[in-house]
Structure formats: C-alpha cells, structure tokens
Amino acid sequence: MIRAIVLDIDGTITHPNRQLSTTAVNAVRKAENSNVSTCLATGNILCFVQTTATLLGTTGPLIAEDGGIVYDPKTGEEHTLSGIEKVEKGIELLEKKFENIKRTKSFDIRRAGKTIERTINPDEIRKVFEENQLDLTVVDSKYALHIKECGTDKGNALEKVSSILDLPLSEIAAMGDGKNDVEMLEKVGISFAPANADKEAKKVCSHVTKGSDGTGVKEAIDQILKGRNPNNQPSL
Question: Which positions in this protein are listed as binding Mg(2+) (predicted)?
C-alpha cells in the first residue's frame, strides 16, 4: 500500500508558466486528507520549497537543491547531503574557461550545489570536470544547469525521506517530469510521469498519465487512492 507520495514541483504541480496548478493543489489536499503524506522535491532552494509546502498544506519531508538538502518539517531538522567546496572549485574553472557563464539569482545562497544559466552546453561542462578530475556533474533541469557532486540526486535524498517517514521505498510513490527526477522515479514502489515529461522520465516510470502537469497529478493521486493501476496508459 502506498502511504506517501513525492512530487516534483516545476512542470509537475505547476503549469509551463510556473504558476501552481489548482488541479494539483486540490489533488494534494485530497491525498493529505486521505492520510497519504505528500513530500515535495525540487532543484530549487530550501526556502522556496518550504513556502510551497506551507501554501499547499503538505506534511512530508522536503527535498531541495536537487537532493542536496532534506528537511524534516516535524522536527525542523535540515540534513545536508552534499558538500559545496568541490562545486565552488568547479565553478571557478568554468568561469575562467567560458566568458558567457551567468550565475542564477539563487547562486550565492545555495548550500549543496550551484546553478548557472543555460548558456553553456552541458557536455562542455562535463569535459572540463573530467579533464580536471573533479567528481562533479551537471544536470539540465530545463530552468537552469545544476552543478553538484556526483551522487547528489533526488533518488539518494529519497532514501533519507524514507528513513524519516519510517516507510520502505515500496510504500512510497513519486511523480516527476525531468531528467533530474529519474533517480527518484527509479527507487519508489510506483512512479508516475505526466504527459509533458521528458522522455528520460517517462522511460523509467511505471505509469505515464494522460494529462499534463496538474491534471496528471490528479490522475496519479486518484489512482493511488483507488489502489489500482491506471487504465489505457499512453505508450512511451
């Protein structure tokens, strides 16, 4: 039985313009009222996801900075799962090599990784890291390029969430639309991708919803609450 669901934010519970989907909001409230703990996962900073969780009324742990930070709202404890020193060295190398590196607005306040604007080919960034033997990676979230230590992802953060909730991963569901959701989607008991998801996310999911973003969230949560598989799933 699924007892918790982890939801990505941008592109999953939001429309393309990044406004919250009221359909998703209502679905989240339905899940919470049915004793299914809802957790949020994002590449954004912790205060962003904390505010979103407060407005939505979610009760589960929060994943921020693409898996670098996990927050337990019941205890107020923050778990930092990734360091920043190697990342800062990597950024320094990138800024020396490329003239068009642009830091995002949240760059300076990030604690488990850094984000830059999407002005550089991620493959070029990976090449710099490999040449300098830095254990770093870059992920394109469609909103920014996330520079982080290898092994820092929503999937590993999900294991911490599982521990906090005292639930096995088999009793947790997840939904996400991006490449940076793949590791999380691979680890849970049931995984969903909305119709608007990247092909990488769809490929690893057990279910792809007919609807996009918030409409897809409603489909997924309704299906979890009914305890049966979605019908007529679109092919990947």
Answer: 8, 10, 177, 181
Residue 181 marked in a binding site: yes
In a domain, 232, yes or no: no
Q: What is the pLDDT of residues 161-188, one digit of tens each?
A: 999 999 999 999 999 999 999 999 999 9
For residue 219, CA distances in Å to 58, 127, 214 come to 18, 41, 9
Q: What is the mean pLDDT of the chain?
A: 94
Q: Active-site positions?
A: 8
Give CA–CA dist 184/220, Å, rounded.
16
Task: Give bridge partners of residue 172 from the DSSP assignment.
Answer: 4
Q: Report percent pLDDT > 90 for the chain.
A: 94
State the pTM of this model: 0.92
Does 10 belong to an annotated binding site? yes
Determine if residue 129 is left, alpha or beta; phi over 0 gives left, psi from -120 to 50 gives alpha, anything else beta.
Answer: alpha
Q: Are residues 104 and 219 in the same domain?
A: no
Co-location of 50 and 141 in the same domain: no
Residues 19 and 118 both lie in one domain: no
**Structural domain span for residue 115:** 84-149
Q: Which CATH number fits the domain that encloses residue 10?
A: 3.40.50.1000
